[in-house]
Amino acid sequence: MIKNLVRGAFAEISPGKRSAGAYPEQTANFLHGMLESSQDLFAAVNAERQLLAFNAAFGRAFAEINGVPPQLEQKLDQLLAPFPPVATSVAEYCQRAFNGEALRLPVELTAQDGGQRFFDISISPIADPDGSVLVVALAMRDITERRMTELRLQGVLEATPDAMLVSYKGIIEFVNSQLERMFGYAKGALLGSPLERLVPERLRDRHALQRVGYERNSKTRPMGMGLDLWGLKADGGEFPVEISLSPLDIAGEKRVI
To answer: Who contacts 192 (Cβ-Cβ below 8 Å, separation ≥6)?
Structure first.
């Protein structure tokens, strides 16, 4: 399935090389081997969102999730029918991909056995040399282990009396209720924001330099041995804060608490 799709793509993209030797065939075989041996899920769909091809990991995963394996020419809408919000989002993103956009979508699926599965989906157009989109490719990475670790961590941090946040490369990924109250933000309003949003403008450049230095050489800095800063509230008010820092590894990625 995947091999034929890859070969077909090379026939479209490299028509002048089809009779020039084995290079396209060797490259197609190489890509086929990579896709079939990958632990990530790959699939390709047409404009009607029918499955044109999928790799072994995709077949195994959806056989476990839905209780029956996916089939060629099956519509994604049917495959994802047990998860209506996900099906709607994927359909919308596939349509946008056929218009040339490359998109990402995090999703949560509940398998037949009741277990939760979390995926990060990349939805990308595959175009010919003229720019016409031939198919849309879906690459799904299983992030269940990472997401479950994050959820357990969030439960712990929410139960602590101190204001806490978790950042990744300077972007806020989680804040507890205590921090939202301290800075005057509504629930979830800080997620995805740069850390410097919580610092007065006059101090942001210095804070960014200190943050990058800490990310390169992370070590625990307890309260009382941390940094004294000024915090910036949602209403523009400033107040003095003391912070402690701790590195955190989640699925091989370094974060900071």
So the answer is: 171, 172
